[in-house]
Amino acid sequence: MNKWGIPLWLENEVIARDTHCVYCGVKMISKMVPGGSRKTVATWEHIINDARIVTRENISRCCSSCNSSKGSKLLVDWLQSPYCKKHDINENSVADVVKAALKKDK
Ligand SMILES: [Zn+2]
User: Fold this and answer.
1) How confident is the model over 70-88, as pLDDT tens digits?
2) Which of 42, 45, 85, 93 could form a disulfide with 28 if both were Cys (CB 3.0 to 4.6 A apart)?
3) pTM for the whole thing?
4) How many helices (H) and strands (E) does the chain have?
5) Gap between the Cα atoms of 91 and 53, Å rounded
């Protein structure tokens, strides 16, 4: 398990699946390069902000830019934020794993 309580098999599965940010679709880098931007560094994301939900449906990877914007906001609320409007992030543009979570939420 990593420090977020994600078992290794799930960690590997999600890393392989989410090479691009599940929200904005940017291609992510796994760690920061010296002098580079940290915006596209991959971070762990609970789509539904509940650390107890450790499933392939809720654990995903998003860029640190989206992660810091989303913070602890509810996904549906965050999608209405100026950040998402600016970056054209909406329920149709997000990755399938996020769409599935949105559908379940309704
Ligand atoms: Zn992003």
Assistant:
1) 999 999 999 999 999 999 9
2) 42
3) 0.91
4) 5, 2
5) 21
